[in-house]
């Protein structure tokens, strides 16, 4: 499905954001490991959580997670410690290219029986679940994905405890913090000191949890407020004291002049009453929050605001190589990104001719599709191909844009 978008001049809307996909995934795995699962309210309903639920329910056969990286990593750890389970976990072509070796190696040192069926360190993997009796001590490279640490941490209490020594640069640390916060909510207190995380043997409690709204999803609306400064956008379901590192997006936009106030009912109301100088350069290290990069890169180009963003090494391991995908697609709109090493992206007004009637390919990546949709504010009639890809995290994104006044025309091929 393709979506052709034309933006209104201003948006006046209250948006009920989807629940956090990341918190939902962690809570679902805890529920599968707990003797008495706690009641979950406001869970994220999207392709990724569906893949995880399907995988948690399986005990034999092949589990296909598609492009769901979080589900892949969590399910490998889960089934490895479930005696009697015999599964093959696979994904789409891109998922087969995403690294798994650090997690597989760590689990194997704990006694897990895991075989890579195609290439060492990559999916598909065959798993024979075994009883694991810790405590264990493992070393884990921390510079590829925080999901490896998250998968080990979540199973740690039920396998007898784990001590993890993180090696190298630690990327996406806020996601590890989120994992520890979810575990703490369910009665397991881990300790993170320097490069060492220790989790005791324990049982998860059956505490109820209402999942807060997704700050990653909120990022597109925060950017939209900046792009259409006369708008009045309110976001529903967010928490001020969030477990999510992507709540940093609010502070980044406030530095660019966005006003924000928490309303008595809990909504976050936005405005651009303090709009600053658009030509001022933006510099930010996104090592802890790389999922914000597509939104920021697209918005800053559209605002005509030069920038240099660092901490982007992990982007090449996402649903697409996000730096390359953004460079390719933004060139269609006349913006030429400069990729610096494997860590940074910058833009200082470099330009090229704009394509007439640009058709954006999201490269199978939900965040590229949603971020590039913001370009409708400057390029009316822009088309987003493979628009269904947003189902991975935000299935109602196009409906929400339409409710906010965007003209959205779907075509099927």
Task: Write structural notes for this entry.
The chain has helices at residues 21-33, 47-57, 69-80, 93-97, 101-109, 146-155, 173-185, 215-227, 248-255, 293-303, 322-331, 366-373, 397-403, and strands at 2-6, 12-16, 40-41, 60-64, 86-90, 113-116, 125-128, 136-141, 161-167, 191-193, 196-200, 209-210, 232-236, 259-262, 268-271, 282-285, 307-310, 338-340, 344-347, 359-360, 382-384, 407-411. It is an alpha/beta fold. It folds into 2 domains: 2-18 and 213-411, Enolpyruvate transferase domain (UDP-n-acetylglucosamine1-carboxyvinyl-transferase, Chain), CATH 3.65.10.10; 21-210, Enolpyruvate transferase domain (UDP-n-acetylglucosamine1-carboxyvinyl-transferase, Chain, Alpha-beta prism), CATH 3.65.10. The strands form 6 sheets. Strands 20-21-1-22 form a 4-stranded mixed beta sheet, with helices on one face. The chain has a 4-stranded mixed beta sheet with strand order 2-13-15-14, with helices on one face. The chain has a 4-stranded mixed beta sheet with strand order 4-5-7-6, covered by helices on one side. A hairpin with a 2-residue loop joins strand 10 and strand 11 (196-200). The mean pLDDT is 95.
């Amino acid at each position: 499905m393709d979506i052709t978008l034309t933006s209104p001049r201003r948006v006046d809307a209250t948006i009920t954001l989807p629940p956090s996909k990341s918190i939902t995934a962690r809570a679902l795995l805890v529920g599968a490991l707990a003797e008495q699962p706690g009641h979950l309210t406001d869970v994220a309903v999207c392709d990724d959580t569906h893949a995880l639920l399907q995988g948690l329910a399986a005990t034999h056969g092949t589990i296909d997670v598609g492009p769901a990286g979080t589900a892949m990593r969590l399910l490998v750890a889960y089934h490895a410690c479930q005696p009697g389970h015999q599964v093959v976990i696979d994904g789409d072509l891109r998922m087969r290219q995403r690294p798994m070796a650090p997690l597989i190696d760590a689990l194997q040192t704990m006694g897990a029986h895991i075989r890579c069926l195609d290439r060492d360190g990559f999916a598909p993997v065959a798993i024979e679940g075994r009883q694991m009796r810790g405590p264990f001590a493992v070393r884990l490279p921390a510079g590829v994905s925080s999901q490896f640490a998250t998968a080990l941490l979540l199973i740690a209490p039920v396998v007898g405890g784990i001590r993890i020594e993180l090696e190298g640069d630690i990327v996406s640390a806020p996601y590890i913090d989120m994992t520890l916060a979810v575990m703490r909510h369910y009665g397991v207190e881990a300790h993170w000191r320097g490069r060492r995380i220790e989790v005791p043997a324990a049982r998860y409690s059956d505490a109820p949890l209402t999942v807060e709204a997704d700050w990653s999803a909120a990022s597109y609306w925060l950017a939209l407020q900046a792009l259409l400064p006369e708008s009045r956008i309110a976001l529903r379901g967010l928490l001020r004291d969030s477990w999510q590192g992507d709540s940093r997006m609010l502070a980044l936009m406030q530095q660019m002049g966005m006003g924000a106030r928490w309303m008595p009912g809990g909504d976050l109301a936005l405005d651009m009453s303090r709009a600053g100088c658009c030509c001022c350069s933006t510099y930010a290290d996104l090592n802890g929050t790389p999922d914000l990069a597509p939104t920021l890169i697209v918005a800053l180009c559209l605002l005509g605001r030069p920038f240099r963003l660092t901490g982007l090494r992990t982007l090449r391991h996402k649903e697409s190589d996000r730096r390359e995908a953004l460079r390719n697609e933004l060139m269609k709109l006349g913006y030429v990104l400069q990729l610096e090493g494997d860590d940074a992206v910058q833009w200082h007004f470099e330009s090229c001719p704009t394509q007439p009637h640009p058709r954006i390919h999201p490269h199978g990546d939900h965040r590229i599709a949603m971020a590039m949709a913001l370009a409708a504010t400057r390029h009316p009639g822009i088309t987003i191909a493979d628009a269904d890809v947003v189902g991975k995290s935000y299935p109602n994104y196009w409906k929400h844009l339409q409710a906010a006044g965007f003209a959205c025309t779907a075509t099927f091929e």
